[in-house]
Amino acid sequence: ATKLGAYDFLEKPLSLDKVVLTVKNALKHKRLEEENVQLRERIKANYNLVGSSPCIQKVRKAIKAAASSNGRVLITGEPGSGKELAARLIHLHSPRKNKKFMQINVGAIPENLIERELFGFVEGTFSDYEKAKKGILSLADGGILFLGEIGEMPLGTQAKLVQVLDENRYEPLGSTSPVKFNTRIISATNRDLKTMIMEGKFLEELYYKINVIPIINPPLRDRKEDIPDLIAHYLQFFSNRDGKKEKSMDKEALQGFVNYSWPGNVSELINVIERFVIMVPDSLIKASHL
Fold it and tell me: Which of 66, 119, 120, 182 is 20 to 30 Å from the Cα of 174, by its Cα?
């Protein structure tokens, strides 16, 4: 019965205390399950690829294909074009969706610390006071690791990563015992890796390892027909999130949004919409607010 889904079983003779405790635990377990489902629904609402332009439909199709596989993915695109969003959507629709999604921004970590973060280290490697630390490759085991701005990775670490991806195992710093892992790698960059390869700044071998499934995120200026949909979606999203009355945008203001070049891409547009929801007291956003 428990294999078929029963929460627990009680043996006779029944104890009232045991019955009450078991029922309380079962109800708590059920509530946690329901909260987990609600949380997943909220996460899905947050990670939404808005738009119907041909280029965004192409991205949506690529994400769907990538999600159903275990192949490594390389997402390229300008800053703010939604590379992390694409990675999270792959995770949400993949067989690994119930496992961890972990991320690391390679460009934000000092060169001398990147291998510590990726591979971890054993106790006493750097000082007598530092305890052992697991690498993020192990922490994400069974799930997905998102390597943001992989073009910033030092060449020495790139060479090490090539071997790690070949063998699906690595040695923590200071250790000679290999650690196996089953982590799917999704990488992203706003750099031109092919140019970096010619300049000797990126290893060609690593490029082919991580670029099994390429996804190219278009800049917002190439999908301006999506801007009205993005505005409507995020006006509603931030109004609901912040408990504000829903706002709309008049034609003149909307045209201003469409005419703007959006150098920060979708991220910039989202920030502007959030600012308007918070700062504009009126229910209609007009050109004067811009």
Answer: 182
How high is the pLDDT of residue 241? 85
Side chain identity at residue 245, one-letter code: K
Residues in CB range of 234: below 8 A, 6 or more apart: 50, 269, 270, 273, 274
Q: In this structure, which amino acid lies at residue 224?
A: K
Assess contact for 101 and 147: CB atoms under 8 A: no
Task: Pick left, alpha or beta for residue 5 (phi over 0 → left; psi -120 to 50 → alpha; otherwise beta).
Answer: left
In degrees and rounded to multiples of 5, residue 47 shows phi and psi of -100, 85
Strand extents, DSSP E, the chain? 73-76, 101-105, 120-121, 133-134, 144-148, 169-170, 179-180, 184-189, 213-216, 248-249, 284-285
Point out which residues pair with 284 in neighbouring strands: 248
Output the CA–CA distances (angstroms, integers) from residue 142 to 169, 171, 180, 186, in the order listed: 13, 18, 11, 13
Judge whether 139 and 182 are in contact, CB under 8 Å: no
Q: Report the helix count and the strand count for the chain, using DSSP H and E.
A: 11, 11
* Pairing of the two strands 73-76 and 213-216: parallel
pLDDT tens digit sequence for 58-108: 999 999 999 999 999 999 999 999 999 999 999 999 999 989 999 999 989
Contact in structure between 180 and 139 (CB atoms under 8 Å) = no
CB 226 within 8 A of CB 51: yes
Distance CA 158, CA 256 (A): 44
Residue 243, token pair as written in the block: 């408990």
Distance CA 243, CA 238 (A): 8
pTM attached to this predicted model: 0.81
Sign of CA dihedral 215, 213, 103, 202: negative
Residue located via tokens 């499934």: 213
